[in-house]
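Example 3.2
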Amino acid sequence: MRLKDRVAIITGGAKGIGGTIATTYHREGARLVIPDIDGDALAEKEREIRSLGGNILPLELDISKPENVDRLISETIDRFGRLDILVNNAAWASYGPFTDTTLENWQKTLDVTLTAYFLCAQAAARQMQTRSGGKIIHICSIASQSGVHRTTAYTASKGGILALTRVMAIELAAHNIQVNCINPGFIMTPLVQRILTEKDRQDREAVIPAGRYGTPEDVAGPAVFLASDASDYVTGTSIVVDGGVTCASLWK
């Protein structure tokens, strides 16, 4: 119970990596706030957590809108009286050549995968400052460290998250707020299953030294560490969870 009675917001926490982190946090004793734009998945996650005896506040919200972020923080404090952990996880992605990337796709990706991170992190940090402590975790990507072809807007947004993490860590350290990110590699989630072609999947799997795609559970363990007291002297860094892809320098 490393997170006993702590209050955690997990954006996009109804399914995929965020959903697995939410369930894992519950098992570690946390009380959950889950904003997600997918109402059906959110209802299913609420049923799951409640069936396990958990305490959850589900909110069907588009967190790329500032007014919805204000509502998220307000309802969290009204319900639980505090905020200890923020996991910025919500994302949007599509694949295609750089020259075919539309402005609409670019803007939507940055709105969901970068601007929403900024909005939620800023609002959460202001609240955490009143309690002199907290944990902010950004779910990023190995795309933030090395280019991945056919992911123009997504890679740009993830690079922005990595830079944002470093600046936040410096400025918030004096308030006992640790800010870190997790860089997953090729993780098999419902989103990945939907947008990848079979050739994309095979190309990626072929360069993973571990010999398999990662699972959301592979990301949840580091997410618990970064949310717990064990990481109190860890800030401004990233944990790579990629089965060895980055260190092998195989991807092109």
